[in-house]
Automatic annotation (TrEMBL):
<dbReference type="GO" id="GO:0043138">
    <property type="term" value="F:3'-5' DNA helicase activity"/>
</dbReference>
<dbReference type="GO" id="GO:0016787">
    <property type="term" value="F:hydrolase activity"/>
</dbReference>
<dbReference type="GO" id="GO:0005524">
    <property type="term" value="F:ATP binding"/>
</dbReference>
<dbReference type="InterPro" id="IPR014017">
    <property type="entry name" value="DNA_helicase_UvrD-like_C"/>
</dbReference>
<dbReference type="Pfam" id="PF13361">
    <property type="entry name" value="UvrD_C"/>
</dbReference>
<keyword id="KW-0347">Helicase</keyword>
<dbReference type="InterPro" id="IPR000212">
    <property type="entry name" value="DNA_helicase_UvrD/REP"/>
</dbReference>
<dbReference type="GO" id="GO:0005634">
    <property type="term" value="C:nucleus"/>
</dbReference>
<protein>
    <submittedName>
        <fullName>ATP-dependent DNA helicase UvrD1</fullName>
    </submittedName>
</protein>
<dbReference type="GO" id="GO:0003677">
    <property type="term" value="F:DNA binding"/>
</dbReference>
<keyword id="KW-0378">Hydrolase</keyword>
<feature type="domain" description="UvrD-like helicase C-terminal">
    <location>
        <begin position="1"/>
        <end position="251"/>
    </location>
</feature>
<keyword id="KW-0547">Nucleotide-binding</keyword>
<dbReference type="InterPro" id="IPR027417">
    <property type="entry name" value="P-loop_NTPase"/>
</dbReference>
<dbReference type="GO" id="GO:0000725">
    <property type="term" value="P:recombinational repair"/>
</dbReference>
<keyword id="KW-0067">ATP-binding</keyword>
Length: 328
């Protein structure tokens, strides 16, 4: 359930490039999008030379900003129309599957629009769990699952399991509601205007530090990924590989540090292209990564990548030019 909630936030963050997360939540909870429909969506995406998320969620980044706390909101009513002649329109869907697809598309529109408009992370998370029906399913199981054993587990009944899952989701929401637990003190101080930094603070960094907007969602997800990675480490084994984002590496040092994906469109991200504030923020994060190494620093890039059915030649990151490095 926590992984499902995190997957919803990843879809909200980047609706057009979220295939692994989309596949996880596309029918969670059940919305009539079964394996047959999923296979049809995958096949249509491959035929169109695009990702399944781009095929399914095109137009959802426009963001219909419905009030997230409103009662009786039908997410499907906020979904963009499936245009005649589009790839999505060409997929044969049952009435139930079409309703499920539109419900999900509308939900993503609402949540992405709210996050883009500066909603707090816990608001977006709470709305995802409520409007998707995820929490309602668990609450129903608490009532109807008393005395019913979980398949393969004779010791726990359905109601008890649902209660525990709701408790874990409540804990996740509590964490989301406390940015101080997942944003560094330096970032919070800068966002508040401390130490004379107010004039230099970008809107994105301010939103991130206060747990708002898409920047806040991204920072929360980075924290969630880091915590999950720490929990899965071999207990007591400090000599291990640690995989993390540049942002999550702040304040840490390693004997050997590897930074990968130093290509235009990745670092810096294509979303920052032409945006001075975004480029400045990514350059700052790149510097953070460079200074994590104590003994050795390795920078790498791909000359080409296989994307959407074809090989794409990639240009080196513009951040490499000032370093005056040569290819190894």
């Amino acid at each position: 359930e926590v992984a499902d909630a995190v997957a919803y936030l990843n879809v909200v963050l980047d609706p057009l490039r979220c295939d692994p997360y989309l596949e996880r939540i596309i029918n969670e909870p059940k919305r009539g999008v079964g394996s047959t429909t999923l296979d049809s969506l995958r096949a249509a995406a491959v035929a169109a030379g695009t990702t399944m998320s781009a095929l399914l969620l095109e137009g959802c980044c426009d963001g219909a900003r419905a009030p997230l706390g409103a009662q009786g909101v039908d997410p499907a009513s906020y979904a963009p129309a499936i245009e005649p002649g589009s790839c999505l329109a060409g997929i044969k869907l049952t009435k139930g599957s079409r309703q499920g697809v539109q419900s999900l598309r509308g939900l993503v529109c609402m949540l992405h629009g709210a996050a883009a408009g500066g909603a707090r992370v816990e608001q977006v998370l709470g709305a995802a769990l409520a409007l998707s029906g995820y929490e309602a399913v668990l609450e129903l199981q608490m009532v109807e699952g008393v005395g019913k054993k979980i398949a393969g587990n004779k010791k726990k009944d359905v109601a008890e399991d649902a209660r525990e899952r709701l408790s874990r989701l409540a804990t996740l929401r509590d964490v989301a509601a406390e940015p101080g637990s997942w944003v560094s003190e330096d970032d919070m101080l800068e966002a508040s205007g401390g130490a004379g930094e107010a004039a230099a603070t970008s809107p994105a960094r301010s939103a991130e530090a206060t747990g708002r907007g898409l920047a806040g969602v991204q920072r929360f997800l980075e924290h969630a990924a880091l915590v999950t990675g720490q929990d899965s480490d071999v207990k007591g084994d400090r000599n291990a590989v640690r995989l993390m984002t540049l942002h999550a590496s702040k304040g840490l040092e390693f004997a050997r540090t590897f930074i990968v994906g130093l290509e235009e469109g990745i670092l810096p991200s294509g979303r920052s292209s032409g945006k001075p504030e975004g480029m400045a923020e990514e350059r700052r994060l790149f510097y953070v990564g460079l200074t994590r190494a104590k003994d050795a620093l390795y920078l790498s890039r791909c000359r080409s990548r296989f994307e959407n059915g074809s090989v794409k030649e990639n240009q080196p990151s513009s951040f490499l030019r000032p370093l005056k490095l040569r290819d190894a």
